Amino acid sequence: REKLREAFIELHRSEPQLLSDVFGDEAARARLANSTEHARLRTLELDYVEASSVAIVVSQAERAALRAELLADGRDVPPVVVIANAHEPLPPTTTPYQQRHGIVFVGNFNHLPNRDAVLFFARQVLPRLLRLPRVASDPSFVFHVVGANQIPPAILALNGTGRVVVHGYVESLRPLYSTMRLSVAPLRWGAGVKGKVNTAHQLG
Q1: Strands in 1-131 per DSSP E
Q2: Alpha carbons 156 and 183: distance in angstroms, whole number
Q3: Are 186 and 114 a contacting pair, CB within 8 Å?
Q4: How far is CA 36 from CA 16, 33, 47, 81, in A?
Q5: How does DSSP assign 16-38, residue by residue?
Q6: What are phi and psi of 122, to 5 degrees?
Q7: Is 144 a residue whose pLDDT tops 90?
Q8: pLDDT single digits (tens) 56-75
Q9: Which residues, 6 or more positions from 171, have their beta carbon under 8 angstroms from its beta carbon?
Q10: Which residues have C-beta within 8 Å of that of residue 185, sequence separation ≥ 6?
C-alpha cells in the first residue's frame, strides 16, 4: 500500500488540487511520499514475516505479492496462508431491481484511497455517465456517498452539486442498500480485500 500510494502521488504531481483534496497540505504529502520511510517499513515488515512460523494474508493476490517481496530480497519464505475476510451471513435485500435507484459508495474517510475514489468517481466517471441520454433523463440516477469519520471538505463540497448526495455516517446500511441499484468501489490504489465489496454482496 505504501509503495502504491507513493506511485499515485508521483503520477498525479501535476494535479496539486487533487493531491491537496486527498492528502492534505504539502507537509502531509511529503510525509506520505517519503520513499526512505517506505523502505524502512518494508524491511521491518519482511523481517517480521521471515521470523514467523506462518504468515496470514487476506487474498491470493497478497500471498503472491508477499512471497515475491521475500524472494526478491533472498529471504526465507515461511508458509503463507490465506484467510479471507469473514462476514456473517445475512439475508440479502429483496427490493426488485426495477424499484431501485442510484449508486452508492461506502467507505471510511480516514482511509485515503476512499477519498480519492469518491472524488475520482464524482469528477471523472459520473460526468461521462451523464452524457448518456438514458442516464441524463433519469433524475433518480444519483451518486450516494456514505462513510464514517470526518468527511474532507472537497467531498462535502460535492453535496447537492448535480447528482451527488453526501450522507456521511449512517447507522445501518441495509435501508440504503435496499433502495440502491449499484454499489461502486472505484479505488485507484490500496491493498487487501475490499470490505465494501463484501458488504454489497452480503446485502444483495
Answers
A1: 55-57, 80-82, 103-106
A2: 20
A3: no
A4: 22, 9, 17, 29
A5: HHHHHHHH-SHHHHHHHT-HHHH
A6: -70, -35
A7: yes
A8: 999 999 999 999 999 999 99
A9: none
A10: 105, 117, 194, 196, 197, 200
Q: Please list the alpha-helical segments (H only) found in 103-173.
A: 112-120, 126-129, 133-136, 153-156
Beta bridge pairs of residue 163: none
Phi and psi angles of residue 143, each rounded to the nearest 5 degrees, phi first: -95, 115
Q: CB–CB of 105/187 below 8 Å?
A: no
Residues 6+ apart with CB under 8 A from 136: 130
For residues 193 and 115, what is the distance between their CA atoms, to the nearest angstrom?
A: 17
Please choose, from the candidates 95, 76, 86, the residue with its C-alpha nearest in 3D space to the C-alpha of residue 202.
86
Closest among 187, 199, 193, 190 to 58, alpha carbons compared: 193
Place of cell 472537497: 154
Stretch 177-188: mean pLDDT, rounded?
95
What value does the mean pLDDT take over residues 104-121? 95
* DSSP reduced 3-state for 182: strand
Residue whose C-alpha is closest to residue 178's, from 139, 199, 204: 204
**Residue in the block written with cell 475520482:** 120
Q: Residue 72: which of 53, 103, 46 has the closest Cα? A: 46
